Amino acid sequence: MKLRYRTYRRENGIYYSLDTVTKRRDSLQTSDPAEARRLLNARNEACQQPAINLQIAQAYLQHSDPDFVKRSWQHVMDEMGRTKSGSTKKRWDTAMKDRAFEQIRCLVLIKTQAEHLLDALHKGTVSTNVFLRRLHNFALDMNWLPRSIIPKRQWPAVQFKEKRAITFDEHQAIVNREKNPERKKFYELCWHLGGSQGDIACLRGEDVDWENHTLSFTRRKTGVPVILHLGNEALNALKDLASEGFIFPYLARVRAGDRATEFKQRCCGLGIEGISLHSYRYAWAERAKSCGYPERFAQEALGHNSAAVHRAYAKRAKMKLPSLEEYEKKAISSLAATNR
Predict the structure, then answer these.
(1) Could you tell me if 235 and 324 lie in one domain?
(2) Given this model, what pLDDT does residue 161 score?
(3) Residue 173 lies in a domain
(4) How does strand 225-229 pair with strand 320-321?
(5) I need a labelling partner for 333 at 20 to 30 A (CA). Which of 118, 123, 191, 311 fits?
């Protein structure tokens, strides 16, 4: 039988292999003739017996890790889920129910081909792309995969839908039409504070310091303490709410998805498109930038710093943030004085 690969030695003493079919030459990276023969024989055997190559590889891998040949993607999902907690754990469990994962859920890692993952990505959504990347990288980091199934550069790009900030007119339209007083106050505070809907919905009356005009709470996602100085409009929005316990008793109990759905219904009723509750954060950030609010204060208020930076900072001191309302009024006053 004619062998596909042949070997030869160059003047520098390094052995090379020649593919007689494609005419490609590859360095064997050795000057030892015995080692070069072993590498060449391995390549020729791989061509002659492709059906048993995987079985041979599994035999070697199983010797170092008995579970290597039976570990499935469901195992990766379960083990990675154990590293999550709280609301992050709930989001992870929901993401793992994606129907696009059904075709790989019981597939053994060692038998997974790139086509399997690409097909799942094609049938899934943006969320499928994000979470499948995490599963793939987790399996690599845990040495459950011998190599990347899809090279990093070949992963389809994650393309999120365009997001925008809610405008003041849109906010006013939603608030003016809202009949439920609790939701109306909730939307007003979202505008003034720019916080995440979970943080604002779970605010308590004890979080408000009326004497110092501050609001202090702990972020639900990162566990980082925050202290915000409130302007008059924000204080007026809080004054009629409960002084003890949750200030939004109903909204604090419902799921984040339910709060988002209710807000979307309000937007659809008014013909407003392209926004969600998260748009209040974009609006707050844009307002802060336009009126010259210092970036470090905006980052602290919106929680955009890393968790590690927040924890280190909180150990030294808690920053009392000035209100955005004050900065807006200063900017308007300065503009009026300039135009005089």
Answers:
(1) yes
(2) 75
(3) yes
(4) parallel
(5) 191
How much is the pLDDT for 61? Answer: 53
Q: What is the pLDDT of residue 64?
A: 56
pLDDT at 306: 33
Low-confidence ranges of the chain (pLDDT < 70): 1, 48-68, 304-321
Whole-model pTM: value is 0.60
Look at residue 67 and tell me if it is in a domain: no
In the block, tokens 């889920």 appear at 81
H-only helix segments in the chain: 33-48, 50-64, 73-81, 86-95, 102-105, 114-123, 126-141, 168-177, 181-193, 197-201, 232-238, 249-253, 256-270, 279-290, 295-302, 307-316, 324-339
Is 289 within 8 Å of 180 (Cβ atoms)?
no
The domain containing residue 11 runs over which residues? Answer: 1-48
In this structure, which amino acid lies at residue 105?
Answer: R
Q: Give the per-residue pLDDT at 242.
A: 83
Distance CA 265, CA 256 (A): 14
